[in-house]
Amino acid sequence: MALLGTLLALSGPLAVPAAAAAEPESACTAGTGPYQRELEDHLGRPVDGVQSTADCYAVRAFQRTNGVSPADGYPGVATYRTMLVVTARPDPNAAGDCPEREHRVTCVDLDRQLLWVQRGARIVFPPVPIRTGRDYQETRTGWHEVYWRNKNHVSTLYGTPMPHAQFFDGGQALHGSPGSLYTTGGSAGCVNLTEPDAARLWDLLTEGDAVYVWGTKPGTED
């Protein structure tokens, strides 16, 4: 027994099996992206336009927090557009571009590709990302109103689904769009939202609600 005690004393505590140890976080190796400076500035990083390892980890943490996929640290368009939403949340109408009225106004900001709904100065539907009309098929600016709604609409021109469609000017509508809103180009004039956002907007609006559109979509002519 004395010999067994001596052996235990010499061997020390049992080693933790390798499988039970925490997995190390994977290295962040994404390179410089097209929105490098914008993300550096937003995240409080040195703004030099060149991706560093620390920049990569900061961008990846932002992506994970805000549901950007893939969360790989690359400062691409999806991450930048998400940054615009996050930045706008406290006060999307800080510049006063969307007129305040006693009734609901759906605000469509072509410059930042954002949509929100306000009643007076109160935000009743927080800003969400959108995709508007491409060059020569731009979403028409100015005052409009929702004049017809169809929950399961299919485009008569293109044969594509337009879930939760709320038409506000001619053939242009607020509606859900499957897939990513961050691809190049744009819509044929409609205001595309993610399908969950379009469903939530459907539940809020009704025929006769005001829609106000202003600005210029990046990449289109004035």
- pLDDT < 50 runs, ≥5 residues: 1-23
Using DSSP, what is the number of strands?
9
Please state the structural category: alpha+beta
Describe the global form. globular
Helix content: 10-25%
Largest sheet: 5 strands, mixed
Mean pLDDT across residues: 90
Radius of gyration, in angstroms, nearest whole number: 25 Å
Strand content: 15-25%
Order the strands across the largest sheet as they lie in space. Answer: 3-2-1-9-4
Q: What distance lies between the first and last C-alpha atoms, to the nearest angstrom?
A: 91 Å
By DSSP (H or I, 4+ residues per run), the number of helices equals 5
* Helix/strand order: HHHHEEEEEEEEHE
Q: What is the multimeric organization of the chains shown?
A: single chain
Describe the structure in your own words.
There is one protein chain. The chain is α+β, with helices and mostly antiparallel strands. It has helices at residues 2-11, 36-42, 53-66, 77-88, 195-204; strands at residues 104-109, 114-119, 122-129, 142-145, 148-154, 161-169, 172-176, 191-193, 210-214. The strands form two sheets. The chain has a five-stranded mixed sheet with strand order 3-2-1-9-4, sandwiched between helices. A hairpin with a 2-residue loop joins strand 2 and strand 3 (122-129). The protein is globular. Mean pLDDT is 90; it is low at 1-23.
